[in-house]
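Q: How would the structure tokens look for this protein?
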Amino acid sequence: MINPTHNIGKSVIRQFVDKAQPGSINLGLGEINIPLHSSISEIGKRVIREKRIGYTPNAGLPELRKAISTYYNNTISLNGVCVMNGAQEGLFALLFTYLNPGDEVILVDPCYPAYDSVVQMCKGQIRYCSLSPEDNFRMNFDLLIEQINKNTKFIVINQPSNPLGTALTDSELKKLAVIAEKHNLTIISDEVYRELYTVERGSTILDFSDRAVVISSLSKSHGMTGWRLGWIAGSEEFIKPIIVTHQYLTTCANSLAQHTAIEIFNNCFEEANIYIKDFLDTNRILAEKLLHRFEMIKGEFHPFLFVKVPDNNFAEEMLEKKVIVIPGHAFSQRNMNWVRISYGVAEEYLIKGLSIILGST
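A: Here is the predicted structure in token form.
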């Protein structure tokens, strides 16, 4: 019999994708639908030819952990990094390691739906800091403080946000760091979209707080979703027990991806990332132009637009017209008449999908 605390279904995102008719235009998943950058492909081929693709140390290859430490300007050490099979495994391993029954986690609403489910699976309790669309969903620190009590252990943030594409400013990160210090809390910062900036890269929480841990990956920044290469970074003391959990979950992260990632960090990180952003820059301009009559949150990070729509059933109506968009309630406890639209698809499909949306309003 399934443990009732684990009786959790697929996310609304996956439910919508699963329900879609064959041939539907997918503006739903947060995946950049573009061929892998040629330099990454060549690195991967060379690794297969020249390396033994076997187990690595549980925490990951030392060279890769060092490269990740360098990426954060050595604010964390090599031993403060555990390489994961994607960022989501990092979140699960962290919460499984540290949550005890009765511990509470504050989630900023709207947020990525996996946070809610993983907290529940790890037997934690959730409190929501629900942000207002009238304030463009900016962080409300007064409301955040109201959610804190003696049982609060973690605050989870998206830096930048999925689904909003917005990021906390440096002053907001400093304020959050002060709150965590005052209340003896740990900040979990999911930064998987941090490199997909339109103007400038957002700051990492690690620059402002030593009571923080970062989860990230190469999945979005380098179009490597299927490679399952992520990491968790923080203090050595905090990361050490997570490595043990990770060992029993998956032994180690994908070895081919780890060897490839070392060379990406050392040789073509920026080049391959710019390739992704140039594609998304073009599509974003197109999407904003076509959707100009809609109210939307224009975040500073790719690849989403959070768009206000006529009613709460809009996403379901689009499914019938063979276009996948994700309803706002996938990211929120509220039934919001907003949808998340991903523009990380080929231009012809983006135009076709958005034209269907426009024809329905």
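The chain has a mean pLDDT of 94.

The first helix runs from residue 12 to 19.

Upvote if useful.
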